[in-house]
Amino acid sequence: MKGIYLAIPLIPLAAAVIAGIFGKAIGRTGAHTVTILGVAASFVLSCMVYADVREGLYFNGDVYTWGISGDWKFSVGFLIDSLSSMMMVVVTFVSLMVHIYTIGYMHEDPGYQRFFSYISLFTFAMLMLVMSNNFMQLFFGWEAVGVVSYLLIGFWFKKPTAIFANMKAFLVNRVGDFGFLLGIAGVIYIFGSLDYAEVFKAAPGKADMTAEWAWDAKWMTVIALLLFVGAMGKSAQVPLHVWLPDSMEGPTPISALIHAATMVTAGIFMVARMSPIFELSETALSVVMVIGAITALFMGLIGLVQNDIKRVVAYSTLSQLGYMTVALGASAYAAGVFHLFTHAFFKALLFLGAGSVIIAMHHEQDMRKMGGLRALMPVTYITGLIGSLALAGIPPFAGFFSKDAIIEAVHHSELAGSGFAYFCVLAGVVITAFYSFRLLFMTFHGRNRADEHTRSHLHESPLVVTIPLILLAIPSVVVGFMYFEPMLFGDYFKDAIHVLPEHDTLSRFGEIYGGATGTELIWKAITHGFVALPLYLALLGIFLAWLFYIKKPELPGKVSKMFGPVQSILEKKYGFDEFNQAVFAGGAVGLGKLLWSKFDAGLIDGVLVNGTAKSVGWISSIVRNVQSGYVYQYAFAMIIGLVALMSWMLFRT
Question: Is it the case that residue 302 has pLDDT exceeding 70?
Fold first, then answer.
């Protein structure tokens, strides 16, 4: 089996190397063929492994030793369980859809082969991350997805905004990664091991250890919070969220890959994997919950005022990542991972659907210049409607089951901050439904606001674009009720996620179904949804979107004038970018200028370089007076010198 486990990440890596190095030789067709076949092979093998795990397979072992330093051995190994196998299937499936879609979206781009090489390499990095059984390999995958995302966001490297965006993503993630690295250092210091199994086994015995330097905080709290800083960077939680909306500067396929099932979910996956550590610190859990709640609500609010179709979907990703993070803080790890699972399909669907619209609109992304595309692009519209219903949490679509579980888990949580988090996730339901259907109505309904030239060329996207949309729409409908019971109330994650009985909010949530199973459980979940508050909040959001953008399209302008200051704050994204630019970027530039003026120009150039030259010149100006050219002066100096030397020798004797 080790051979299969190795093949799953290495096949996309080999395909990336072939497409990257030999791209010119094999041409465009060769590049997309080899990478698509590579990811497809990984997907098939991942499905085989997933089936084996469902039958009871569990593997945790090293594949080879990467390096030895003193008593430390660094290994590459795999942990194959329910959590990793699920992530493997999701990553490879979404990546496969993105690869196929890219043929249609990037067919005229001169960097075609390079793009396929990058996305295949991205798939390899993500697989290494989710399959790891130790912190070293986790960190390798963590950094690898960061590096490749830098390349992909800045793929159009002649575009200044793309270069700014990829540098921004790189720097913000370095902040999170520094905390993550410190957390791993804490694991080494306390546990003396990088192996998950050894660390998790020893964690309960270390629960009461205190870190005197951290005001006697528990070491488990310190480690958990540092690891979470890494998750905040990768999964774009406030205040390290600022890079994610700007990642839209990359091509749409990579927007779908980053936002749906790969990079941004790495932090959610990592916290769920580290549940044995997080469960030992209620402080860390409360921090995770509150940060997630702030992200879910306040990033959703920004989505209300965006007019770029991709940025609306981007801010919805930020908000949904906040929901997942809230679930982790409520110890409902299974609910958070379940939402990760369902979200991967409908978010990839929405991004690729947005890309389909952008293709039809000749790369126009402003929704104010769209409208009336429903009849012209029926497949894109229907799949977009499915994605929007799933995102809004309408039963029986996938998003309903996972989002409802998160809201109920937070409602049953007793941790500090749970009341605030519950308010945020409820308010977020209205907001999510509103911006989802605002996008749908502005793009596909009403009159067509495009120019005459664009209108004359509008038509449905080719099959290479619409087939991935259809294949993503299917799981966006069915995976919710298919996996609701096993993932939330069954033993699906029994070997991967560990929850203390006093934190088990999902069990309290499950009590409302009275022990129902199978079809009865699904039916009770749907009927519960129809009597619970979240569904009516979602319907309210849809109604308001219809009222504002279909029934009375003049209302948005009036509301904007009425709430001008609020809209200005939202359009400025709460000033995070301006603050970072002024304080961190501006501060770094200011510090650099200060150091240059005081130390480089003043000390090094002024004192050491110029000062030395001036000193030598001053001494030379004095000494050269001795060299007058007169013989009698030289003779006189020799006599005086001889007398002085003889006198010194006489007195010395």
Answer: yes
